[in-house]
């Protein structure tokens, strides 16, 4: 029986993970789960899975949970996430919170040498070098959950690392594929929240439309697989069936395909190196699908991707700046305080003003993050 902690059990990835666990109750057990604002759903999950520990983001949620489940250990906020990350009882920690609040909890799990099923891409983007060093030091293991990185991870099994010549990450192109910058000036929140292929949380859905999500994935792939940015290519593939590909030096290209369902990579991160049964996901029907299309991304219109390559190549603290500026900008856009294209302006300005520094510890990362957040929020 594998014991699992889910950080962010009420989100899109968290609830898909719950579906996977529900379908394999003889193999997986939930020992801990966390939510932020949605304590009602968390309480339904507690009722069904009977965890030993939970963490919640609000005082109201904490009171409601403690009243109904007096036996349960209830933690709160970021400290609570860290406690859950460090639990001795868990074999696997699924990090499925959104934004960079997941970093410290991931660090705790790494220090305990656990398997981290990593959905939260912001963690490696902001603290990739530090986390990689710690993973080695503490003998932890990161198995990616993001569908593209899971595809790369699976395709990489076909050869040795030194035989890889290129990673090819696919992108759906989002709801605004083919649009011009002038078209993007008029984008409304409800248009940006309509992803053509994937049902996801609000923040990542906006990130997918700006291609910042793809940018974060490029930086994440660099840290996960140790491949130079020059050898990472992004290709737009509107059907989202080929989840990503690896080109080897003999020109063989190995890909992982499947229909768009996050339960597949989540389950793989739990069962790796084995593959479990999956009766929840539809089979891929190539004949019905009949065609797969590919095109180059337009990085002049969708600058989110261009900025990511720039930030990644500069390295040090620049990917952190790229991520923090984007997190704040997306939040402001979701609140209706800025226009769509201001997201790019905010990222570009933050990167332009920043002098990159080497990142030595998590405290320093938190400080840089906090000061940039304050600066942008003060301005808007
Ligand atoms: N969705 C996908 O298909 C997908 C694919 C690949 C990677 N990812 C990555 O996976 C992560 C989660 O994405 P998602 O789409 O599942 O997001 P989501 O639906 O917005 O869920 C986010 C989860 O994090 C919790 N949360 C939000 N703010 C928090 C905070 N300040 N402190 C603690 N917990 C907090 C939420 O709790 P409440 O709901 O209770 O407020 C919820 O459980 C992101 O990093 C995303 O980039 C997602």
TrEMBL record:
Enzymatic reactions: 2-C-methyl-D-erythritol 4-phosphate + NADP(+) = 1-deoxy-D-xylulose 5-phosphate + NADPH + H(+)
Matches recorded under Pfam families: DXP_redisom_C, DXP_reductoisom, DXPR_C
Cofactor: Mg(2+); Mn(2+)
Record SUPFAM superfamilies: 1-deoxy-D-xylulose-5-phosphate reductoisomerase, C-terminal domain (SSF69055), Glyceraldehyde-3-phosphate dehydrogenase-like, C-terminal domain (SSF55347), NAD(P)-binding Rossmann-fold domains (SSF51735)
Biological-process GO terms, alphabetical: isopentenyl diphosphate biosynthetic process, methylerythritol 4-phosphate pathway involved in terpenoid biosynthetic process
Gene3D superfamilies xref list: 1.10.1740.10, NAD(P)-binding Rossmann-like Domain (3.40.50.720)
Protein name: 1-deoxy-D-xylulose 5-phosphate reductoisomerase
Species the sequence originates in: Propionigenium maris DSM 9537
């Amino acid at each position: 029986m594998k014991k699992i902690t889910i950080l962010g059990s009420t989100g899109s990835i968290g609830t898909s993970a719950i579906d996977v666990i529900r379908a394999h109750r003889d193999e997986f057990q939930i020992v801990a789960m966390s939510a932020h604002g949605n304590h009602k759903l968390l309480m339904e999950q507690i009722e069904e899975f009977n965890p030993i520990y939970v963490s919640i983001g609000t005082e109201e949620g904490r009171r409601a949970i403690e009243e109904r489940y007096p036996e349960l250990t209830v933690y709160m906020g970021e400290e609570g996430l860290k406690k859950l990350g460090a639990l001795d009882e868990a074999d696997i920690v699924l990090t499925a919170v959104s934004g960079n609040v997941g970093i410290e909890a991931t660090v705790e799990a790494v220090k305990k040498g656990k398997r981290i099923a990593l959905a939260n891409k912001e963690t490696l983007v902001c603290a990739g070098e530090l986390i990689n060093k710690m993973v080695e030091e503490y003998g932890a293991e990161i198995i990616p959950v993001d569908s593209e990185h899971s595809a790369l991870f699976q395709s990489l099994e076909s050869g040795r690392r030194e035989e890889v010549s290129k990673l090819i990450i696919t992108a759906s192109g989002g709801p605004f594929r083919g649009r011009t910058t002038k078209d993007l000036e008029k984008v409304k929140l409800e248009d940006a929240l309509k992803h053509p292929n994937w049902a996801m949380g609000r923040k990542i859905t906006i990130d997918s439309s700006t291609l910042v999500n793809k940018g974060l994935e490029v930086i994440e792939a660099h840290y996960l697989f140790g491949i130079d940015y020059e050898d990472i290519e992004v290709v737009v593939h509107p059907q989202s069936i080929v989840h990503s590909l690896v080109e080897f030096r003999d020109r063989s290209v190995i890909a992982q395909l499947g229909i768009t369902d996050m339960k597949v990579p989540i389950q793989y991160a739990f069962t790796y190196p084995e593959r479990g049964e999956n009766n929840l996901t539809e089979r891929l029907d190539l004949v019905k699908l009949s065609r797969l299309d590919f095109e180059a991304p337009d990085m002049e219109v969708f600058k989110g991707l261009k900025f990511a390559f720039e930030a990644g190549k500069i390295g040090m603290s620049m990917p952190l700046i790229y991520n923090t500026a984007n997190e704040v900008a997306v939040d402001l856009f979701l609140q209706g305080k800025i226009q769509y294209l201001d997201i790019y302006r905010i990222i570009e300005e933050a990167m332009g003003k920043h002098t990159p520094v080497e990142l030595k510890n998590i405290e320093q990362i938190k400080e840089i993050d906090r000061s940039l957040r304050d600066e942008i929020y003060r301005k808007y």
